[in-house]
Backbone:
């Protein structure tokens, strides 16, 4: 049981006061994308916040979240090794593109030269070769989303949570960024969860879909 | 995974113990810091109250008696002093706020408004004393205004009028209004977005209300709720001001606070009992002003509600709109023209009455002033830099403690704000008259046998500097998108690294501006510096105000400009440094 790989949600329920907002059990295997859909206010983002360790104290959660056999209960967010992507890229405006990537890169990669090479390699991987010294504010929305993805992957997450990360992008860029994200998730063999309103996103993710919003769901 | 028993109570239900303790500790920090900053006020009040009833063993007062108060009420002209203090507090506040309200009502959201904001910002750097000196050089019988009039009327002698130091204190109140109106306007600027001013005004106008009425009835009540403490601080300050009163106010009799300071400095130590009684009475006068102001608030609020429910739309408000800019413009122009007058006087050679400009210019005054003030400037700089730095540390700890205990990075749904009780505690040193509790602190220092030192001065300055730093930093501190820090945590960075590498650099601009405001506040402090320094640690401000009675115009002008230069430099640095740091970072530019 503790040897299960991937992201395991065991009888997870989130309540606000007496009301149970959502209840879900799921197992996301490495390389899979579980899509969570539901109307606004159904608690999709709250579920991701709970998994990442940022649950607003007005909510109460029960159940277990297990990542590659590791029970995440009580771990601080920075100890969970769960990557997050929001609909805004949230690149740090005071750092260059490269600075943002190095901020994300794990400390195990040592030495200035090696760190820089690793970051540049990651930029190449998302199709932004040579942007290391750019000001993030000068990038387009799609480019910023790619940098945010590269930054998150450099932190070597063991799972990825995607909170409507494509919703701010226009249709063309959306498809390209989506393909890039899902390709990298599959390539790295990490479990991912996607919260979205958009059925195309869900289809492109190619994994199981869970609808939340009151009823208990199991995948 | 089916063999697990159902989880009744999950670990998520309880905050892990370490985090619980941290959160509780974080919640205590704001109270601790705000309490420490308010403590000197309470201690100082006790230090003033005990001698006021005859108890001050250090100079032989061991028995409780009402003798100090009997002596106080027997002082000639006490009634007039009280009336002056009361009127100054109330009139300054009414006039300043009225000018601000009509200005904002007529112009909010327009280009003129944005311009006014940019133009008035730097005026915050001009200290009270320098503003008062500048105004004196404008409106005195031999000042620039009468010189300009004389070019028309052909007069060759300055008119024989008592303008500076008029017995009604009108010049003093004018000096206060000129300084406080830009301050209140900037406070309103900061409050407007939170009151959702632009949209509320649109709604009111779409309902058919004129601009002035739409703003006054639809937006102003929400704005006023936010700026109430600064307004009360203005009322308290104006009712107990000393430096502006020494420069522009009447002397026979002077307002109460000025007389208390004179008594406190009397070489006959037994006069301290009288000074203590005066300090206690000053608290009463200031509280009376605040009570009267709160009465006016009630009347104004009732009137607003009545007008708002009457259905009248007040669409014809062209006349009000025409006069609306007058108050703020006069205040702004007076400060700037006053600085120009100071500059002219500091460079003037011979400058006889009707001439608009000096007949010769030179640097002799500046050579003497720079040589004579080097020590005072250094003292001012050291105290202000130390007080501003310490205030920033204390305020950052306070705000961060508040943010973390309110859910910290976990909460994005609602905006964190300082609890009203903490904000009130922070404002205590600005509401209780300086002369009352600082005098009490001086008495205590005397009783404890401490001698004036830079450290003591820095601590006392900190009490006045921290509230303004907190006022400036709270909004940007709580407004930073918490997802930036969530992102850092999800990338594996712990709290301290996130704080130093994300929060501090992203808020470098607001932090430096808050530090500059603190620095400017410290430079401008007259009374605490005078009383706690006991004349042994002069700053540029105490030196400049000391010249008010019978000083040489040219020296005085140079001193007032030096006093203004320090805060200006601080503000210039505070805006230049972040701009330089962010020169390749478009996302870091304000606006």
Residues:
């Amino acid at each position: 049981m503790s040897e299960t790989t991937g992201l395991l949600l065991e009888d997870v329920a989130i309540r606000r006061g007496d009301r149970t907002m959502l209840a879900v059990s799921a197992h996301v295997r490495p390389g899979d994308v579980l899509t969570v859909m539901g109307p606004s206010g159904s608690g999709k983002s709250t579920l991701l916040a709970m998994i990442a360790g940022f649950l607003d104290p007005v909510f109460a959660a029960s159940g277990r979240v297990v990542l590659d056999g590791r029970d995440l209960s009580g771990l601080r967010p920075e100890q969970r090794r769960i990557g997050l992507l929001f609909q805004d890229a949230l690149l740090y405006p005071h750092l260059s593109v490269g600075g943002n990537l190095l901020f994300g890169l794990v400390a195990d990669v040592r030495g200035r030269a090696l760190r820089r090479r690793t970051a540049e390699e990651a930029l190449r991987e998302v199709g932004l070769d040579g942007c290391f010294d750019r000001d993030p504010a000068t990038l387009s929305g799609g480019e910023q989303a790619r940098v945010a993805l590269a930054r998150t992957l450099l932190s070597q997450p063991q799972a990825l949570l995607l909170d409507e990360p494509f919703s701010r992008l226009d249709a063309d860029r959306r498809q390209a960024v989506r393909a890039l994200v899902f390709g990298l998730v599959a390539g790295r063999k990490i479990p991912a969860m996607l919260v979205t309103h958009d059925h195309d996103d869900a289809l492109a993710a190619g994994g199981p879909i869970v609808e939340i919003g009151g009823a208990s769901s199991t995948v | 995974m089916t063999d697990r028993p159902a989880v009744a109570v999950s670990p998520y239900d309880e905050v892990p113990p370490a985090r619980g303790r941290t959160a509780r500790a974080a919640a205590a920090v704001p109270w601790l810091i705000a309490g420490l900053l308010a403590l000197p006020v309470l201690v100082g009040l006790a230090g003033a109250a005990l001698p006021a009833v005859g108890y001050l063993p250090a100079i032989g007062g061991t028995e409780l008696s009402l003798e100090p108060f009997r002596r106080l009420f027997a002082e000639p002209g006490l009634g007039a002093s009280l009336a002056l203090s009361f009127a100054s507090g109330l009139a300054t506040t009414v006039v300043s706020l009225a000018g601000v309200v009509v200005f904002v009502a007529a112009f909010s959201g327009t280009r003129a408004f944005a311009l006014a904001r940019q133009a008035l910002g730097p005026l915050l750097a001009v200290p009270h004393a320098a503003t008062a000196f500048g105004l004196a050089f404008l409106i005195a019988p031999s000042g620039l205004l009468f010189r300009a009039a004389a070019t028309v009327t052909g007069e060759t002698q300055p008119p024989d009028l008592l303008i500076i130091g008029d017995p009604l204190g009108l010049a003093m109140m004018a000096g206060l209004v000129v300084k406080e109106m830009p301050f209140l306007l900037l406070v309103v600027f900061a409050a407007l977005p939170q009151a959702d001013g632009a949209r509320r005004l649109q709604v009111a106008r779409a309902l058919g209300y004129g601009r002035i009425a739409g703003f006054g009835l639809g937006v102003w009540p929400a704005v006023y709720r936010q700026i109430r403490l600064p307004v009360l601080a203005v009322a308290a300050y104006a009712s107990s001001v000393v430096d502006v009163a020494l420069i522009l106010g009447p002397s026979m009799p002077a307002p109460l606070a000025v007389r208390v300071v004179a008594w406190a400095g009397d070489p006959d130590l037994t006069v301290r009992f009288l000074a203590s009684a005066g300090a206690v009475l000053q608290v009463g006068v200031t509280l009376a002003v605040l009570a009267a102001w709160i009465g006016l608030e009630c009347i104004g609020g009732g009137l607003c509600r009545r007008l708002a429910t009457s259905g009248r739309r007040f669409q014809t408000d062209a006349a009000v709109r025409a006069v609306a800019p007058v108050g703020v413009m006069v205040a702004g122009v007076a400060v700037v023209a006053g600085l120009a007058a100071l500059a002219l006087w500091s460079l003037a050679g011979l400058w006889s009455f009707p001439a608009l400009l000096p007949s010769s210019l030179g640097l002799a005054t500046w050579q003497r002033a720079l040589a004579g003030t080097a020590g005072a400037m250094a003292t001012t700089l050291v105290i202000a830099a130390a007080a501003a730095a310490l205030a920033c540390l204390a305020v950052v700890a306070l705000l961060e403690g508040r943010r973390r205990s309110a859910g910290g990075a976990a909460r994005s749904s609602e905006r964190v704000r300082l609890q009203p009780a903490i904000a009130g505690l922070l404002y205590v040193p600005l509401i209780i008259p300086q002369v009352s509790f600082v005098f009490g602190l001086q008495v205590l220092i005397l009783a404890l046998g401490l001698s004036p030192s830079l450290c003591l001065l820095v601590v006392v300055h900190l009490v006045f500097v921290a509230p303004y730093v907190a006022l400036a930093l709270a909004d940007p501190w709580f407004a930073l998108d918490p997802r930036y820090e969530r992102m850092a945590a999800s990338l594996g960075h712990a709290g301290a690294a996130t704080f130093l590498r994300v929060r501090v650099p992203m808020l470098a601009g607001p932090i430096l501006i808050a530090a500059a405001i603190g620095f400017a506040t410290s430079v401008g402090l007259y009374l605490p510096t005078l009383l706690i320094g006991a004349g042994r640690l002069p700053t540029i401000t105490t030196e400049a105000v000391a010249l008010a009675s019978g000083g040489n115009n040219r020296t005085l002008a140079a001193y007032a400009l030096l006093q203004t230069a320090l805060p200006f430099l601080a503000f210039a640095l505070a805006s230049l440094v972040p701009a330089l740091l962010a020169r390749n970072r478009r996302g870091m530019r304000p606006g």
Confidence is low (pLDDT under 50) at residues 1-18, 408-413 of chain B. Chain B is about 70% helix and 0% strand.
